[in-house]
Sequence to fold (334 residues):
Amino acid sequence: MTMLKYAIPALCLLAAPAFAQDPKKVDTMRVERLDPALDAVITPGTRVGRVAGGFGFVEGPVWKSGRLYFSDVTDNVIRALDRMGNVVVVLKASGGLTNPPKGSNSGSNGLVTDKDGTILVTRMGIGTIERLDERGNIKPFLSKYDGKRLNSPNDLVFARDGALWFTDPSFGLPKMDADPKKEIKFNGVYRYVGGKLTAMITDMTQPNGLGFSPDGKTFYVANSMPDAYLRAYDVGADGKLSNMRVFYRWPKNSGAGVPDGLKVDSLGNIWATGAGGVSILSPKGKLIGKIVVPEVVANLAFADDGKTVYLTATSSVYQLGTKVPGQLPLYHRR
Fold:
């Protein structure tokens, strides 16, 4: 783990990226303007900075009370980064296994703040979602669907009505879909509310990142593989989904990475990680810009008042500013 020696100012860009000594790498940290509409989202000339590094494979960032919490999937820990650049481990064995194979996808992944101030943690190693409190204690929350073990919960979000939605691909199982521990035949998207867990989508191969439009009427979910695409659905009463359509499909040979985490800003633009970086899509599905860094971006989070963006990308955390506030989690704590 690399400890920073400079402060991370809130709501502004770093004066000098950590890669400043390497011009080749600085050139690969950029915002690509592909349509004039991007100017209303990100100020032209905005720089991307690397603010922490030296990790295994980082994922699932969420901002809470002045710190960015994020999972290190392969190092099997949850870390927190504060505004001064200090990084600490807040949970060991975060995926639930105490001694997993080195480099395996068995750590925690997605994180989200709940209304009581705790963080819900997807523990891929043991196929559960559990609750992490301020003291670092972890308690059970969800582990089964219809009496069967969840595969490896991945990403999660609260809808405006307070329902928890999450994806459950097979990435955390050593042999994925062929693993003998896999009890559920499909890789699903679930909704949990009022003590009831419902499988809402069962026909995606590897569902991953998910989010809602600002008005809550459109639901987005990314599929990682083998086909790389982003679906959209209309959302009705009690979360009922209809009018499924492919909202965006990543072109083949467009760079490293697969569709993973996503977030939606206050104008309804979708910030979706995928091949070649973060694709910023208009509410109509047009690619208006990309954020490119020299590592594969797995997820992102809007922080503070929504105008600071953190990217979790392989071994590093990156930061940039945005003109348009991002949608903050329902139970956001600044």
Remarks:
- Residues 14 and 49 are 6 Å apart (CA to CA).
- The longest strand covers residues 241-249.
- The chain has a mean pLDDT of 92.
- The first helix runs from residue 23 to 27.
